[in-house]
What we know:
Layout: H1 2-11, H2 16-24, H3 31-50, H4 53-69, H5 80-98, H6 110-117, H7 125-130, H8 133-143, H9 147-158, H10 163-170, H11 174-188, H12 190-196, H13 208-235
Helix pairs in contact: 3-4, 3-5, 3-9, 3-13, 4-5, 4-13, 5-10, 8-12, 9-11, 10-11
Amino acid sequence: MVDQVLTLQAAVVLSDEQVIERVLAGETALYEVVMRRYNTRLYRVARAILKNDAEAEDVMQDAYVRAFQHLDQFAGRAKFSTWLTRIAVHEALARVHKAKRIEEWDDMDETKQNRIGAAQVRSNPESEAASSELSRLLEQAIGNLPENYRAVVMMRDVEEMSTTETAECLSITEDNVKIRLHRAHGLLRKQLYSKAKISTTGAFPFHAARCDRVVSAVFAVLAALQASHASSGRCQ
């Protein structure tokens, strides 16, 4: 256990690609490094699409499991963080479509988008306890945005992802990212940002308990999958 902890601590300074290379070489425990590195980003992105904490965690777990199962297919043409985020985005959108809770926003007029986006978001006690009143208001304002604007704001303003990476993750053009971000800022109102006097990077916190829960759940699923494969091999 001590050796494993030391290994994980040492691996924190490695790049994503170096960690993945070692995981593929058999050091599967190091997968925890990239999970903890991107838990907050995946949570924020998934929640921006689903507007539900529990579903966001489920999407994170599914994304990590799928990514682990296809690590050998990661070609390095994009950053690992982009590749992983795209998996989470696809997982979240698939859930939305499956539940039939989404319409094609781009086919709607602005009035209908704003009316649907104005639906009240159920407050998150954990976030309220951890954030100031101003931060809570900002989170609520972002949460009330239409989905196509909300995801862009979450990626660009909150996660501080580049326009290029955001476009890659959402499979849209960079111009579309800029247009959606501009419209989103208009809906949020510039004075909300100026009066809040807080950094958007502090919104939508992903707390340690959740982080531990997701990491443990992913490793449990991976262990079950490995056991299942081993059992199938013995049966043959």
